[in-house]
Amino acid sequence: ASEDVSRDIVTAFGDSLRAFADKCPDLRTRLITLLRAPVPVPATYQGTAAAYARRRAAEALGRIGNPDDVPLLVGVLRRDIAGLPPATNWYGDPAREGAARALGRIGGTQAAAALYEQLNDRIANRFIMPVIVEELGRLNPSGTAEALARLLDSSDETLLVRVLTTLRQLRATSAVPQL
Description:
Blueprint: H1 2-13, H2 17-23, H3 25-36, H4 49-64, H5 70-77, H6 94-106, H7 109-118, H8 129-139, H9 144-149, H10 157-169
Helix pairs in contact: 1-4, 2-3, 3-4, 4-6, 5-6, 5-7, 6-7, 6-8, 7-8, 8-10
């Protein structure tokens, strides 16, 4: 039931969630509760309604934009929240993807550092690496272009396109070697 409420609220309010959350503080509390709730069977979690409800909850927290939510979102991104699936799960990573997007929206030093550290584990982050790159580009902390340029040796075409697009948006095309 809480998952349905999350989906309906995010769909209905989109980017105007910040104003709505100011008038309804219970919304933020429900979203946080949903993200912290243990997942009954982590091995079968991904690809389920529970996984996507958590992604929408994280994204909604990003739209609300409260910096107090950054530690929770960092915890989701780092898999510090109980019940998230292991890095080897091949269904994708909806909750962590939502957390990465939320951190990019909220911004700040802690959010940028959490996204930056995830660049170091391409295997565990293979499903969300393009989102991490995109959100780092949005925040553009010092050293972003150089860090992203190190990903240009990837064989993942989706990631390569995202890195090149982000470097272009950052006007850091000199970081791309001559082809």
